[in-house]
Amino acid sequence: MHVLIAGGGIGGLAAAAALLQKGIDVDVYEQATELKEVGAGIQISPNGNRVLDALGVFQNLRALSCDPERKEFRLWNTGRPWPMFSLGKTVVENYGYPYLTVYRPDLHGALAQRVRELKPDAIHLGCPAAGLAQDEGGVQLELKDGRSIRGDVLIGADGVRSVVRNTLWGPTNPEFSGMVTWRSLIPMELLPAHMQVSVGSTWIGPGGHVVTYPLQKSKIMNFVATMEGRSWNHSGGSAPGTTEECLSDFAGWHEDVLTMIRLSPSLLKWALACRDPIAQWTQGRVSLLGDAAHATLPFLAQGAVHSIEDGLVLARCLEGVASTGVPAALQRYEAARIERTSRMVRGATANTERFHSKELVTEERAEKYLQSEWSQSPIFERYDWLYRYDAVNTPI
Ligand SMILES: Cc1cc2nc3c(=O)[nH]c(=O)nc-3n(C[C@H](O)[C@H](O)[C@H](O)COP(=O)(O)OP(=O)(O)OC[C@H]3O[C@@H](n4cnc5c(N)ncnc54)[C@H](O)[C@@H]3O)c2cc1C
User: Fold this and answer.
1) Which is the catalytic residue, given 97, 99, 103, 213?
2) Is 7 in the pocket of ligand 1 (CB under 6 A)?
3) CA nearest 230: which of 244, 242, 245, 243?
4) Cross-strand pairs, 267
5) Which listed residue, 99, 169, 316, 369, has the most CB atoms within 10 A of its CB?
């Protein structure tokens, strides 16, 4: 069994590690000439950490990451706090693993290291996928440089603008959501003492929200600020922005938010793309994984976590299967994953209104809104099913 993976992001590498661990041969074809991730943070909830532990990277990653005490809401203008949920020990008691906040390059690097431990030459850089062809006996990944690689399975883990997905299902590139997200990393020591906390905060207000959490043993504060009703005139999905531009997007917000913008050494802005879940991922010997399969708005912080879950479930479905059994195994993989990932995508989209509601305009109206939308019972309904999932043992 030889699996070809297009894309060496978090999802592609997690899948490669999971497959190699099960004794299945893998080659990963990554378009970039250097393996790297965005210099930003990522939240890895217990369901993701359970998989990372099964892949042998959890302990190393935990040593580099943060395990915040809690998540809380803050009101955009007054800063009034509102509890979301306890993290730390409570999450471990409930779900078996912590909720970590991680520097993306640390996660990506740990996965790449694990893949290379299992197969030193598994990752091929500077290899953009351009197309594919399949027949009864196998599948071919066509690379942009004209080479054609043959294997038993092809997995498109090539992100939100997936060539594999577009080849299977026609061009369906995601649409700009009208939301722009600002990202920066602020050295913790620059922040005023009251802001140097190990807490995940979501500042919510009419039309926008700001997420902050600590990274790398609290040396860094991750800043992610989203505003809707924006236009996007840049050619790529991200572009550098200025402090003035970001301050103007968040004019009138709490002084702590403005302080973080002013103290950001640099600010990058991202056009947030979204797309409805698709009905099918698999054709014959080819399937999809991660953002290629279920691109999502990041408002449940589950896109990468679900791509990691995909990889392990995929490996479980392919384990012990002969080449002739690949199409059926990929159907089992899709059947095991599609309902959960579609629910996650819809849930993330639904959070847009909950984070950006006009009801948040004054403290009085916000109080009522938070009581109805963000009290303990709806929070449990929205998040418990995500964190409780066990990709290692879920029926396939
Ligand atoms: C602001 C923001 C915050 C987020 N926060 C979180 C969070 O806290 N927690 C969470 O779980 N998720 C989060 N996400 C979502 C997460 O980043 C994505 O879901 C995740 O990166 C998807 O991983 P992937 O491997 O599927 O795709 P990608 O990370 O996009 O990787 C795809 C890889 O394929 C390569 N590639 C592309 N085209 C080709 C080609 N033709 N041939 C070969 N290689 C190709 C790319 O270079 C890349 O290396 C966030 C997203 C954003 C935008």
Assistant:
1) 213
2) yes
3) 245
4) 241
5) 99
Tens-place pLDDT, residues 24-74: 999 999 999 999 888 899 999 999 999 999 999 999 999 999 999 999 999
Cβ of 12 closer than 6 Å to ligand 1, yes or no, is yes
Residue 357, token pair as written in the block: 């509601």
CA of 309: how far to CAs of 164, 291, 313, 333, 392, in Å?
20, 12, 6, 11, 8
97 is catalytic: no
Inter-residue contact 153 to 285 (CB < 8 Å): yes
For residue 175, the model assigns a pLDDT of: 87
The three-point CA angle 146-9-342 to 5° equals 110
User: 218 and 196 in contact (C-beta within 8 Å)?
Assistant: yes
Residue 358 C-alpha to ligand 1 middle, in angstroms? 31
Tell me how far CA of residue 333 lies from CA of 34, 36, 171, 327, in angstroms: 30, 28, 23, 10
Q: Which domains does the chain have, with CATH numbers?
A: 2-174+275-388 (3.50.50.60)
Q: What is the token pair recorded at 62?
A: 């935990």
